[in-house]
TrEMBL record:
Encoding gene, per UniProt annotation: wzx
Keywords: Cell membrane, Membrane, Transmembrane, Transmembrane helix
Membrane topology reported for the UniProt record: Multi-pass membrane protein
Organism per entry: Klebsiella pneumoniae
Protein name: Putative O-antigen transporter
Presence of the UniProt keyword Cell division in the record: no
Main location: membrane
Location in or out of the cell: Cell membrane
Length: 413
């Protein structure tokens, strides 16, 4: 049964505020004790982790969540979906680990980078242990949020206690990358204790695996095209500009991502309800909901931009030696985050719930072609600022294409 949307939203924001405060403490601390170069290396490990998790997720975060959100009272169907999705994810995880090991053995990376690569790949097990898509479909995202908060808090405490200088980089990586894994273990215990869903081999069938994989492939293949201008950005910066520049970029990026933590709960809390409203064809209600969410996102973004403009450099200089560079990057990144927020409404709350996921691939294909056509000259022109501006241009193109598609298909009419 679906949880109350208003209550879920409040719970999510309370936890999300805590999740915002923790990085604001952790990021300056790590940048200070590790230094800009080794902070860049840690960011590389996180990029590897994000990429590995992306493959293991395989788009199920939306396709499987949508299937569950349509009928949350059918426990047998929910267990069937859960069992088959977990099997698929486990097989993908094994393949990702093997590919990661092969890459490390064949590459000429430094020893420390090889260790960070392996840690990043192994941390993708969190995608299996923490079935966020299940609770998103059930409209019970607060369960996931509270566990993630607890694991992040523990990670922060361990880092403060044991990470004191550059030699503790691996400890820092373990504490950060494996906090979601710990949260996933806790979630599995809750699932078993409360019998949220049943994982049974009798539910597993080749036909279901094929159907679920095919449905999810639209989301996965579309999102795969976004890797170039999302998770691969730190790797591109590391290759062309070095670890030190990556450290500056990552510091700014992590601060900018705080905004996304404010956007996500409102989208997650309404996803299950939006699926039902599309199923019931209540388009007027949907339009009003989307307009209200967009205004909330605009207010958050304006506040962040003004705050950074007047106070950003001064505050950042208290913790990080590159305050001016980070503040300048943030001006671009805050604008980008607002564009991404609008994209989240268009994709997560309109295109996917309306069953139009097939179009994602077309949009992201245009976007990735555009990105790779401009990224090299933009790096040569503006260095790390060129990278940030490139991402803004790409995200703006994506929003324009989705607006055009929704209007052309009359999805909300």
């Amino acid at each position: 049964m679906k949880a109350n949307v208003g209550r879920e939203t409040i719970y999510l924001y309370l936890v999300q505020i805590s999740n915002i405060i923790l990085p604001l403490v952790l990021v300056p601390y790590l940048a200070h004790v590790l230094g800009v170069e080794f902070f860049g290396k840690l960011s590389y490990a996180q990029a590897i982790s994000y990429i590995a998790i992306f493959f293991v997720d395989f788009g199920f975060n939306f396709s499987a969540a949508r299937n569950i959100g349509i009928d949350t009272n059918n426990n047998k169907n929910i267990s069937r979906i859960y069992s088959n999705v977990q099997v698929i994810k486990s097989l993908i995880f094994i393949a990702v680990v093997l590919l990661g090991i092969a890459f490390v053995l064949l590459s000429n990376q430094s020893i420390i980078d090889k260790k960070l690569t392996i840690l990043g790949v192994l941390s993708a097990s969190s995608s299996i242990l923490m079935p966020a898509w299940l609770f998103q479909g059930l409209g019970r995202n607060s369960n996931v949020a509270f566990l993630n908060f607890a694991s992040r808090l523990l990670s922060l405490l361990l880092i403060v206690l044991f990470v004191k200088n550059q030699e503790d980089l691996i400890i820092a990586a373990i504490c950060q990358l494996f906090s979601p894994v710990l949260a996933g273990v806790g979630m599995q215990m809750i699932i078993l204790k409360n019998k949220v869903v049943d994982f049974t081999f009798s539910h597993i069938s080749f036909e279901d695996i094929k159907i679920l994989s095919r449905d999810s492939f639209h989301n996965f293949s579309a999102s795969f095209l976004t890797l170039g201008f999302t998770y691969f950005n730190p790797i591109i910066i590391k290759v062309f500009l070095g670890d030190s520049v990556l450290g500056v970029y990552s510091f700014a990026d992590k601060l900018a991502n705080v905004l996304r933590q404010l956007y996500i709960p409102l989208v997650q809390a309404n996803f299950s309800r939006v699926c039902s409203l599309f199923h019931e064809q209540k388009y007027s209600t949907l339009k009003n909901m989307f307009i209200k969410i967009a205004y909330v996102f605009l207010g958050i973004s304006l506040f962040a931009y003004i705050s950074n403009y007047f106070l950003g450099e001064v505050v950042i200089n208290l913790f990080f030696s590159e305050g001016e560079g980070v503040s300048t990057l943030l001006r671009v990144m805050i604008f980008t985050q607002f564009i991404i927020a609008i994209s989240m409404i268009l994709v997560n709350l309109i295109v996917i719930p309306a069953g139009q996921s097939y179009y994602l691939k077309k949009v992201y294909l245009f976007a990735v072609i555009f990105y790779f056509s401009i990224i090299y000259p933009m790096i040569k022109w503006g260095g790390v600022y060129g990278v940030a501006i490139s991402i803004s241009l790409v995200e703006l193109l994506i929003v324009c294409l989705f607006f055009k598609f929704i209007k052309k298909k009359k999805i909300l009419i």
